[in-house]
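Protocol check, entry for the methods section draft. Step 1: assemble the input record (protein sequence plus ligand SMILES). Step 2: submit for complex structure prediction. Step 3: store the structure tokens unaltered in the notebook. Ligand used here: 6-O-phosphono-alpha-D-glucopyranose. Step 1 record:
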Amino acid sequence: MKSTLIKPICNELSLYQYNEIAVLELDHPIGTAKIALQGAHLFSWKPAHCQQDVFWLSEMEPFKRGSAIRGGVPICFPWFGNNGTPAHGFARISLWDVTDYDIQPNKVTLTFSLFATDKTPIAQINMIFTAQCELIFTNYQQENAQLALHSYFNVGDIEQIQLHNLPTTTFNSLTQQQENVPSPRTIGENIDCIYTAENGATFIEDQINQRTIIVEHINASDIVVWNPWHKPTSSMSDIGYKTMVCVESARIKQPLKQESVGVKIQIKNTAV
Ligand SMILES: O=P(O)(O)OC[C@H]1O[C@H](O)[C@H](O)[C@@H](O)[C@@H]1O
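Step 3, stored output:
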């Protein structure tokens, strides 16, 4: 994707245009990150100690206004899936404002806010980058809502990863049934499961990339695991599924009131 500079904001932050979408780029000794203002959508994070991006992004992503970016961390809010229209809520296709930033030698904090047309705050997300990345979402609406921080993780080969620390029972959205499943879990076909977030963290063990991605779910009630496999999916090639897995920190069954939900992501290199 060809990008053009709109304006530098400070030494470490610049605003770029990616086709129809404005993107904030962070370039700092702790690592690099890219966030689309549409959706406050983090779609790239490469900590200094990592060879590959932590997040998966579709190689055919068109960066079009009004359509959600296929990859990174879409913010699905105030509803999940087809519980309303548009699917996964309006937050991921709405324009957010950069309302604060703080650049320190070992830590960068970026704050994005979503406002209603009358300027009432709807939601906020804080992105804290150190050697780890922490995303903290806050709902300011009076009404109960749903939320998913729908993270697409970049993996070497979907058939060679193991997901550790998930429960042994899950709601399978494909069969619409509660099912018993193995843990650790491997993936060899289309998967769309909603787990209860009983355990604090999910570990994505990626043998090919020689790393484990530790996904710590903060104040989540559910963890969604998704990979469409060969199911046709917008802005995704027929081989896109091979290098991604979605492990989503969500509030689906337990409505989100005026409170915060987050995810903390840490990379452990396992190369010997
Ligand atoms: O295509 P999207 O609207 O981005 O949704 C992508 C996927 O998101 C979640 O993981 C849901 O559990 C899936 O059922 C859905 O297909």
